[in-house]
Every structure is written in structure tokens, then in C-alpha cells.
Please model this.
Amino acid sequence: MKVIADVCIVPIGVGVSVSKEVAVCERILRETGLKTQLHAYGTNIEGEWDEVFAAVKKCHETLHALGVERVSSSIRVGSRTDKPQTIEDKIRKVQERL
Amino acid sequence: MKVIADVCIVPIGVGVSVSKEVAVCERILRETGLKTQLHAYGTNIEGEWDEVFAAVKKCHETLHALGVERVSSSIRVGSRTDKPQTIEDKIRKVQERL
Amino acid sequence: MKVIADVCIVPIGVGVSVSKEVAVCERILRETGLKTQLHAYGTNIEGEWDEVFAAVKKCHETLHALGVERVSSSIRVGSRTDKPQTIEDKIRKVQERL
Amino acid sequence: MKVIADVCIVPIGVGVSVSKEVAVCERILRETGLKTQLHAYGTNIEGEWDEVFAAVKKCHETLHALGVERVSSSIRVGSRTDKPQTIEDKIRKVQERL
Model:
């Protein structure tokens, strides 16, 4: 099952600045080979359900291995059977109507 | 990796009332044997990462098999390494301070 | 416009345990007189749009006033025009189908 | 209080394709003059708390006025007191570490 997800991973207990931990996760997501797109409050990810959630799990596990004691993520995930759709499709469909 | 998650599954394209589809998902989540707690805007789920996300995946797949063409879920998921924590622990910790 | 919302407020930079800050917010939400229901990953809130978001804003402001330098919240909010609906309605509608 | 938010507005009961309704909301958000950035699963918005949530409220109200009977939004919102931060700052801080 193909999905488009949006993931915001928040490390808790490492202080106010979390860009180092977010960058660790961003690298993990990119190394999966899944299509990703970083934005200011998360990352779009496109791929098979299992691969997408394995990638997010690896982010949690890696942060914990680096000493982050608590991680809280907010995820949106969408699947559809009527037609295939990519990250670019979704953005273009809206922009064409603006 | 043990997690506490909160999942809100929204079927799209089936009309305004979605309680039938939400109940299908609620049954799937309960049949997993994972600890769950329904609330007005989602369901708390406690268990191993892989089992929790396999359950949510099964909800998407089942709704699609029933003819729902599009499903969009909003998920919060938290993991921590400092101590084990249950759904009841989280609620009690806050209530003790009220 | 009446809404049912679900709010999860995460204080960042105060350490791994956040139950003190979550309890501060829970008290603020309850003192508004809005109907609320705490669960393990957030709080359901029922009321007028402006009152609900004024309450969540007050949580952010109060945490900042208490020295929390960063707050990140995850919110679901739903409105509908076909019929009035309460927190209890939403839960009962699903439970009746289980 | 300045915030960076991320908003995903889902119209329910209008069918599988929701790009028309999403475009209506995107126009509303842009007409506010707030800084916005569309992505594949929502829109980043930067501005004062009251203006940001007035804009999201206007999206719900406008969709209802157009006949959409149910709208469910997923919102992330962050505020911080340690330093000012823009949408571009957040992205650059992560990209510099990749």
C-alpha cells in the first residue's frame, strides 16, 4: 500500500534547540531512498507503508541510541485506491486551482 | 520499542457520517489484543511499535477493501527510554497534579 | 461555530518529565468552563471555536510565563453543519456499532 | 505571541477529490498576508497566534458556506520565547546540519 505521509519528530528532554536531532532524522529518512521533502514543521515522505514507518521507527530508535530519552512524533498518513498520487501531484493539483 | 500512540482515522469520500468506518477500525484495533482506549477524536493504543503500526495499516487496508477510496489518518506516537509507561500511568500522573 | 477539538501540548526544554506542565494546561482548560476530557495523549475540548483556541493560546502563554521557552502543540479540530454533536455523541455513535 | 503553524484541512463528505476545497483554503490563507508555504500534506503559516487561527477559522467557515458539511483539520503550532524564528530559519537550521 502506497502512502504519502507527513512526519514531525520532536525530541523531548534535550533542550530548546532540537535542530541537531531533527537533522539526524532527516538524514535517516533520506538514506532510505524514499522520496522526501523537508518543510518548516515536518517532512513529507512518499513510499510503501512498511518502508515509511520503518524509517520513522529508525528515527525514534536512533535518537534513543544517541541518548534522547523521549521522542514524540506527529504523523499524517494518507492512502488512496482511486489513483496513484505523488508528492508533486498533490501540490500541483492545488496550485493549478489558485 | 514500546510506544503509546493516538490514532484518528478519517475515511474520505464516504459521506459526512463516518461512524461505521470508525467502528470497523475500532474493532480491528481491539482484536489485536493491544491495550486501547477510545475517545472523542481518536484512540489511544499501547504496545510494541511494529504491532501498533501493523494495526493501523490493517485499518487502512480493511477500509479500502470495503470500498473506501481514500483514508487520511492523524497519529501521535511517543517512545521513551527512561522508564516504562502505560496509558493509565500517563493519565494518573497528570490527575495527581490537578 | 461549535467545534470538537483534541489538543496535545508539548513543552520543550524542560526535561523528560512534562506532567507538571501538562497539568498546568489541564487546569487552564477546565477553568474555561468548556467541556473537556483528558486522555493519555491529549484532551478533548468542546465549545465555540474562539473559546477553544483562546484556551489553547492561554496554555502556551502561561507555560512561557512559567519559564518554558518552547511549546509545540498538536491539535485536531472538527466542525460540522449537518447536526450538533457532543463529545459523548461521538463516542456513543462508535460504541453502538461495536 | 508569534507562532509557526502547520495546517492540514480535510473537507469530509465532498467525495474523494478535495483539491478544490484545499485551494479555496489556500487562497484564504494567502489573502491574509501571513507568510505561508504549501507542501504536500498541509501549509506552513507564520504570524501572530490570533491572526493564524482567525485564518484557519475562516477556512472552516468558508467551506461550510460553500456547502461542505464537515471539516476536520490537523494543526501543529509552535511558539518560543528564546529567540524569533521564521519558516526559512527552521528549514535552514536543519539543512545546515545535513
About this structure: The first helix of chain A runs from residue 19 to 31. The interface with chain C takes residues 10, 12-13, 15-16, 18, 69-70, 72, 74 of chain A (CB under 8 Å). The helical segments of chain A are 19-31, 49-65, 87-95. The CA atoms of residues 35 and 96 of chain A lie 22 Å apart.
